[in-house]
## 1
Amino acid sequence: DAGVIQSPRHEVTEMGQEVTLRCKPISGHNSLFWYRQTMMRGLELLIYFNNNVPIDDSGMPEDRFSAKMPNASFSTLKIQPSEPRDSAVYFCASSLSRGYTFGSGTRLTVV
Amino acid sequence: RKEVEQDPGPFNVPEGATVAFNCTYSNSASQSFFWYRQDCRKEPKLLMSVYSSGNEDGRFTAQLNRASQYISLLIRDSKLSDSATYLCVVATFENTPLVFGKGTRLSVIA
């Protein structure tokens, strides 16, 4: 298995632009998590899905952030419009039972 | 108060030293406990799960004290390759989100 696949690996965008981050979970995993990591706040949960259904989005910072999981093999995290304070590493993880696997992350820089 | 608290370090230790990390968690409903390792610019990776009876994996020993809501990690005979950030992690049930501490940075020096 190729593991959790995230794209792009790096994204540099201008303030105000729309950014879409993508994640392909491990086949057969039924839970998917989006995390954001910054030096100041560490790893924070943004949203998670069970069986493609959003369960808890209380970590989504504001309405500029949205996430979807249209099927078991794909999820997106969208930021519109982006702001410099959104600069961070965004990780996607998937799990089945107690086994959690993280993707390599997307390093987002908003200038 | 953060759900999982750790000393951020850094811990700078010579090769061969023994080093211990501690963390505390606030949610008494937590059922699963882990130590993750994160290398610079990489994703977190599971180092070991932590069980109430304590568990050992080679040079690494993890302990859990549910009454005190306290988790520890001991690394014996430190290697240069142990240099990384060690994240204390808890979860309530299977397939629920992992809650991370901010991590403790370890540098092992030759």
Note: Chain A is about 0% helix and 60% strand.
## 2
Amino acid sequence: GENVEQHPSTLSVQEGDSAVIKCTYSDSASNYFPWYKQELGKGPQLIIDIRSNVGEKKDQRIAVTLNKTAKHFSLHITETQPEDSAVYFCASSRGGGADGLTFGKGTHLIIQP
Amino acid sequence: GAGVSQSPSNKVTEKGKDVELRCDPISGHTALYWYRQSLGQGLEFLIYFQGNSAPDKSGLPSDRFSAERTGGSVSTLTIQRTQQEDSAVYLCASSSFHPNEQFFGPGTRLTVL
């Protein structure tokens, strides 16, 4: 089955700096790659996603890049703010099959004031 | 509009008892998913429904776990003869079709004493 590796497990950055979280996946048939933000005591919230026919997608301060050849994708957050502090999860899915999302183990992002 | 809701938000039970967890998806969403999140871990996919049918139940951890969905809406996840290792947050998500963006509920925190 699919395996998603996520790094780093913890990331501390100064407010205003950029943060990058990286994920690799194993199943070459995967074609949908969402990123979720989870705050304490809440369910994950979808913040951005990318499909395999696109190499990069941007939404304000958040961007995601995908390299299908290398089987890795990354989340980039620019101009970080205190409210960006949370746990971020990457995930992948084949689509079209009876499977859900396969998640990475998460990155705890800490924004230092 | 209303998001995915889950009940109860917290459940404490004794080892060996049965529990039932409920999920109300976003109105009109045909696909529904159950995940399990153990302390400090990523999310583990359990089962997916398209309408009332679950094409693949192999993600369920053991035969003590079962799920059903009626009327293409509400779903229940039942755990029989609970064990301490069943303690986790159980998350439900729904999407307008499979596969597409999944929207998560707040989860049910299950504690088995």
Note: Chain A has a mean pLDDT of 93.
